[in-house]
Amino acid sequence: MATLIQGSLDARGLRFALVASRYNEQACDRLLEAALATLRERGAAEESLTVVRVPGAWEIPAAAAALARAGRHDAILALGVLIRGETRHFDLIAAGTARALQELAVSSGVPIAFGILAAENAAQVSERSGGSLGNRGGETAAAAIEMARLRRAL
Questions:
Q1: How far is residue 130's CA from residue 10's CA, in Å, rounded to a whole number?
Q2: Alpha carbon of residue 125 to chain centroid
Q3: Which residues span the domain enclosing 136?
Q4: pLDDT by residue (tens digit) across 7-62?
């Protein structure tokens, strides 16, 4: 029989850093609140939670890299909101941010949970930050917990 290794949703004893954009602040605040609520519900202690606010999504990878280098957190959550506009700016920020966070997770070994919404319009953001489609902040927190546990198991 094969050996199965997987994480769990028990946040007790784990340390988390949440890097959240201030751009599109109301939606980012809803993502952050849901992420923090999920971490707390799953047993994370208040003193094990660090929130870092950055100007926009583009700045998230730099802050996450500093946190990963510091080695004080079991997982990092990246939370932000991008809404497509009339220029290529959206595509550049979305692709660059995703690539940088993926590379950081692999190179540092610290799980980075990706909670950056890249939406076509404000209605899509609203639906995914507490609307009828749930809140990606809470989902991001659950992924961070599971990956932090998996990392410890590996």
A1: 23
A2: 16
A3: 16-143
A4: 999 999 999 999 999 999 999 999 999 999 999 999 999 999 999 999 999 999 99
Task: State which amino acid sits at residue 80.
Answer: G
- Residue given tokens 């991001």 in the structure block: 140
pTM of the model: 0.95
CA 89 distance to own-chain centroid: 21
- Could you tell me which residues come within 8 angstroms of residue 73 by beta carbon, excluding any fewer than 6 positions away? 15, 16, 17, 50, 67, 110
Annotated catalytic residues are: 89
Residue 65 scores a pLDDT above 90: yes
Q: Which of 69, 57, 56 is nearest to 17 (CA)?
A: 69
d(CA 8, CA 16): 15
Segments in the chain forming alpha helices (H): 25-41, 60-70, 89-108, 122-128, 136-153
Domain membership of residue 151 (yes or no) is no
Q: Please state the domain count of the chain.
A: 1
Does 138 reside within a domain? yes
Whose structure tokens read 């994370």? 44
Query: Residue 52's domain is classified under what CATH number?
Result: 3.40.50.960
Q: Which of 151, 128, 118, 130 is nearest to 16 (CA)?
A: 151
- Tell me the C-alpha distance between 39 and 16, whole Å: 9
